[in-house]
Please model this.
Amino acid sequence: MDAPLRQRLAAYARLIRLDKPIGSLLLMWPMLWALWIAGRGHPDGYVLLVFVAGVPAGVARSTNADRDFDAHVERTRRRPLAAGEIRPWEALIVALVLSLAAFALVLTMNRLTIALSFVAVALAGIYPFTKRWTHWPQLVLGFAFAWAVPMAFAAESGRLDAGAWGMFAASCLWIVAYD
Model:
């Protein structure tokens, strides 16, 4: 592999923050808790794979939405999109490919999980923009990250019970508190 291609692939990996996965881990924790609880300690391996595979798509979409701000923030100015290592259209292609792959995987789940995925996409899509329009973007982030909880319960059991909604609410509060 030649050096320019290797550098480009490394920039794409940094776009989805493989080098700094804390955001992805914070996104996955409520989802993983829900999968383990809904699966009674033994979540379905395929369902686990589908849910984990969807995380990079959300990260790519969020990073792309924040591209104009990241260049002006010390902590984020070296991200590949903000630093000009990749162009906005490239980031859009990466986000689109990852999103389509994630959606294709979700389509293998049950109807309830598929229906809930549309809410997940909407929440993930509006979150980056709430930083500009509201004083409570953390609440929307809480809903967006915690929405994996009802999705996980739906994927594992095909239904949503009071426990799923209680865990969703608790996850929202935890996310608002840490963010």
The CA atoms of residues 98 and 118 lie 16 Å apart. The radius of gyration is 17 Å. The mean pLDDT is 88. The longest helix spans residues 111-133.
